Known about the structure:
single chain, alpha+beta, 3-stranded antiparallel beta sheet, 31% helix
Amino acid sequence: MWAFPALGVSIEMDLYVRAGLAPLQAIRSATQTAARSLGIERDRGSLEPGKRADLLVLSADPLADVKNVRAIDAVYRSGRRIERGAVGR
């Protein structure tokens, strides 16, 4: 399993859920809404044709428990799998 490089984001999503948001709403806040607020939604924030395809493959369902966003099996940047230890390069 991967070490989660942005633990703060997963803590924030957990706090959103504790405050009453559904897990999917918390995930959208951290992805789609964040991209929109930064003005980068044209190619980031959601999985759609033509976008960068930066994504995490999880080994547990984040809709069952939003903390499962930490259960990272694989990382893809621009559609290419990033090997362990290469994140951040």
